[in-house]
Specification:
Blueprint lengths: L2 H27 L9 H4 L11 H13 L2 H9 L4 H28 L6 H8 L2 H32 L4 H19 L5 H21 L7 E2 L2 E2 H18 L6 H26 L19 H8 L7 H9 L10 H26 L4 H7 L8 H16 L3 H37 L6 H16 L16 H22 L5 H28 L2 H28 L18 H4 L10
């Protein structure tokens, strides 16, 4: 199979989904209406609620949800062959991810920027909300701790990416000032920002920065982890227009350029896919394709984390309702294109099948390293870029998107901490909640030693927890549609498929953790499984009641907002309502 043909088919399928299916969802299912004021206007505060140009907001949303997961998942899943991964990414992007991301955004803007956690309290009940928060808290903990480890490992392994990684912060701060203070036109800002970012990539390739083996008594990787969490904590408290938005926007442009470079190299080099379409010789210990494919590739097909971003930060910045189609659904399209690129890079970026099998000797042996190696080889072959520069582009791309996800993840974790405090009768300020959120993640990361390896301890549960979150989000979307007298089928189909596959995977993992005597993961697996099943049962009861609903479902109940949590939180029943 030639990689060019696979790329053309995949891109055509995903873009057709945006042109056709997203229009159907926007007009017939969600009935987006620009005459309705969005929370960004109703509750504008200049910090979290900020009306934003849809292209800038798309950049924030897309890069927040992208991260390293749409690279890691497909790069691991191709061990079963490229065809199952390709089908799940393309079909999942069109009918699962786009519907889910747009649905979560719509649900939040119709409830004054409330998050999925808060909406569960309204549509499922207080008990459902509390159980929901358990899943959300654990998911964010996994994302923040693991992504810090992934980024630090890449910074250590690819010293050429250090300068562009941290230099991008200065570029983002200047872009934010140019857009909101100096009122530069967006095209000019975009060109200047992208040129500055790629200049930094070139400088980084010429001037690699490698830390000594120990810094302040810590291994180099551990030092980077601490720096990353300090940065993420500070960034999570800044106004979104100052750093989060411009950083994500420029990174979004950079990613599409990087994808253009990768796909352009595929067009020029036309490498053959050396990996099998269906791998009948998987390494010993590789789990079964069903159901593990559907949780290994989460981001890139459907991801619960996307719904948290859609309702946690994006919904508070939407200029008008019709922008939700571009920001939400096209954000999923960008994620799908990245996942498709990862599949091509990790199956066509090797010279022979033997070379490919040398990398994929065991399950989880692929990942970011295989993406950087394979993608760099394709770019070198197609565009003639030096291997070092090509690898720097790929590594910087992976790092920047993992970092933007971590930025948003820490901000969302702070919201969850405030919501939990509110339930316990304790009002936490933004600063205190941030310290708690970062402190818990650091405790997990360094709980197994000074090397920071603890950050990956609960990562095996990420895929299942993430997909359960997607199913729970879809249950709320389905309830809202039923209460409005619209068909819930577009939400129910992915809800049933993802929910069934994920619960099946959780039961398989229970057996694995028991055999390994991994009591921490076993207990967490049980907690997540019980909480999710309980919420799903209550959600289906709520769906039955929703059919009989008679009232104005677009008028939220007025509840006082806690300090910081309600107006911008993942939880917070108030969500700034008035």
């Amino acid at each position: 199979m030639n990689s060019l043909l696979l790329a053309l088919i995949g891109v055509a399928m995903i873009l057709a989904g945006y042109v056709l299916y997203s229009r159907y969802l926007a007009t017939r299912i969600y009935a987006l209406d620009d005459s309705r004021p969005t929370p960004a206007h109703e509750l504008e505060d200049g910090v979290d609620y900020v009306p934003t140009n849809k292209y800038v907001l798309w950049g924030h949303h897309f890069t927040s949800v992208a991260g390293a997961a749409p690279i890691v998942g497909p790069a691991v899943a191709v061990i079963w062959g490229w065809l199952p991964a390709f089908l799940w990414v393309t079909i999942g992007t069109v009918f699962f991810a786009g519907m889910h991301d747009l649905g979560a955004l719509w649900a939040s803007i119709r409830n004054r920027g409330q998050s999925i956690g808060a909406l569960s309290g309204r549509y499922i009940g207080a008990r459902g909300r509390n159980l929901f928060l358990v899943v959300i808290f654990l998911l964010l903990l996994m994302v923040n701790a693991a992504f810090a480890v992934v980024i630090s490992n890449l910074l250590v392994a690819t010293p050429t990416a250090v300068i562009p990684t941290w230099g991008a912060l200065a570029v983002a701060l200047l872009v934010g000032q140019a857009i909101y203070r100096l009122r530069w036109s967006l095209p000019v800002v975009s060109v200047v920002g992208v040129v500055a970012l790629y200049t930094l990539i070139w400088i980084g390739n010429e001037v690699p920065l490698e830390l000594p083996e120990t810094v302040l008594g810590l291994p180099a990787g551990s030092f980077w982890i601490i720096v990353l969490f300090v940065y993420a904590g500070i960034a999570s408290m800044l106004p979104v227009w100052m750093l989060l938005q411009p950083r994500d926007y420029i990174n979004g442009l950079q990613l599409f350029i990087a994808l253009g470079i990768l796909y352009g190299s595929v067009l020029l080099a036309r490498p053959e896919i050396v990996a099998p379409a269906y791998n009948e010789q998987v390494p010993e210990g590789t789990p079964s394709l069903v159901p593990l494919l559907f949780v290994t590739i989460a981001c890139g097909a459907i991801s619960g984390f996307h719904g948290m971003v859609s309702s946690g930060t994006t919904s508070k910045q939407l200029e008008k309702e019709s922008d939700a189609r571009f920001v939400g659904y096209f954000g999923a399209v960008g994620e799908g294109l990245l996942a498709l690129g990862a599949i091509i890079a990790t199956t066509a970026g090797f010279a022979t099948l033997a070379d490919w099998r040398e990398v994929y000797q065991a399950f989880n042996d692929g990942g970011v390293a295989a993406f950087v190696q394979g993608g760099g080889a394709i770019i070198e072959s197609g565009l003639g870029l030096p291997q070092s520069l090509a690898a720097t582009v790929m590594a910087t791309t992976a790092i920047l998107f993992a970092a933007t996800t971590m930025d948003t993840g820490v901000r969302l974790q702070r919201f969850v901490v405030q919501e939990i405090g509110e339930i316990a009768g304790v009002r936490l300020t933004k600063g205190v909640a941030t310290v708690v959120a970062v402190g818990i993640a650091l405790a997990l990361t360094f709980g197994a030693g000074a090397d920071g390896s603890g950050g990956m301890l609960i990562w095996p549960l990420f895929g299942t927890t993430n997909q359960l979150m997607a199913a729970l989000t879809l249950s709320i979307v389905a309830i809202m549609l039923l209460r409005r007298g619209r068909t819930p089928v577009p939400a129910l189909i992915p809800l049933v498929v993802v929910g069934a596959m994920t619960v099946y995977a959780l039961f398989i993992q229970l057996g694995t953790f028991w055999d390994e005597q991994n009591w921490l993961l076993l207990v967490l697996d049980i907690v997540i499984l019980v909480a999710a099943l309980w919420v799903i049962v209550e959600a289906f009861v709520a769906m039955r009641a929703a059919k009989e609903f008679d009232g104005d479902d677009d008028e939220p109940v007025s509840v006082a907002a806690p300090d910081g949590a309600g107006r911008s939180g993942v939880g917070g029943d108030g969500a700034g309502r008035r």
